[in-house]
Amino acid sequence: MLNSSFFIKVTNKLLFNNKSKKDLLQDLKLENFDRSTFSFYRYVNIDDPSSLRDILYKEWVSLKILGRIYIAKEGINAQLSCPSKNLMLFQKKLHLHKGFENIPLKYAVQDGNSFFKLVIKVKDEIVAYKIDKDEYNMKKVGNHLNPKEFNKAIDDSDSIILDMRNYYESEVGRFEGAIIPNVETSRELLPEIKKILKGKKKNKILMYCTGGIRCEKASSFLIQNGFNDVNQLNGGIINYAHAVKKKKIESKFVGKNFVFDSRLGERITDDIISKCHQCGELSDNHIDCNNDACHLLFIQCHECGVKYDKCCSNDCMDFNKLPIEKQKILRKDPERVVSKTRDSLSGKPRFFLKA
């Protein structure tokens, strides 16, 4: 008879990654096949997110899928990297799940090594706006505009264009004339949007985000708050970028599309609209500070990357040169300030990656 604790241990090994980052990156390096990066979402009622999470994990591990997925009672939000040879089978399996029939995939503008492991988490929301359920109704969302329609609407003098992303995303790329809310997290966004739009309920509202998911609930929130002409870019910046390339339409988006994976961005136009946070020269290269005790996400030009060894400051560069064992001891000291970069960079970063 099997010991129950042994069974749980074996089961968990199947449902969670148990390899180190070093080993996972090595596995990725040894792959001899191409991968496709894409995302999808759907607001749909999910009765048992935890059970669905385990089912999808088993399915996707067998297909060598990597990525980050959030599942909640309100739906699913997924960013994935799938072996191209397994793509058809993945779609077939996905569409068999109730509520996921014919769910559209949004393919990356630029492929690359986007993820190195598979993480599926059960959340309270698939976008963490933290608003009460009576403040939105997902059966009433904004009008979905295709890229040509969105371009035309931008030219309307009555239109208000809203970037529904965090500040650090908009910093490297945005639509011309868009209002950029000064927020760092999704939780801050909707209260800030209400302030921005005070007294403007009669205007045409144009919203956009990376792939559409943030606009979906935000548009419902605005409609619930009395806005009548609420519109969103269908498929987000990703779909827009593909349309610009394939249909040769004018791009009113300039710069890069920030993405939440190892690529950190996709080039949409050649425009560089942001500056290095260290020297102030033009740059839109986001980088994760090379110091494992910091992991600050910031913009760094090539020259500063060489000068600071891909760190955000001299403090972090010096800390990074210490013996590993000493670094580990110092990291445990709650009183130690590794770097004062957060207060000293000329272009203050807005986001800090977890170590």
Summarize the structure.
This protein is of the alpha/beta class and 355 residues long. It has helices at 4-15, 21-30, 49-62, 87-95, 147-154, 167-170, 186-196, 213-224, 236-247, 302-307, 314-320, 324-331, 341-344, and strands at residues 35-43, 66-72, 75-83, 106-107, 118-122, 143-145, 159-163, 173-175, 204-208, 230-233, 253-257, 266-267, 286-288, 296-299, 351-352.
Q: Any chance you could write out the topology, listing elements then pairs?
A:
Layout: H1 4-15, H2 21-30, E1 35-43, H3 49-62, E2 66-72, E3 75-83, H4 87-95, E4 106-107, E5 118-122, E6 143-145, H5 147-154, E7 159-163, H6 167-170, E8 173-175, H7 186-196, E9 204-208, H8 213-224, E10 230-233, H9 236-247, E11 253-257, E12 266-267, E13 286-288, E14 296-299, H10 302-307, H11 314-320, H12 324-331, H13 341-344, E15 351-352
Parallel strand pairs: 2-5, 6-10, 7-9, 9-10
Antiparallel strand pairs: 1-3, 1-4, 2-3, 8-11, 11-12, 13-14, 14-15
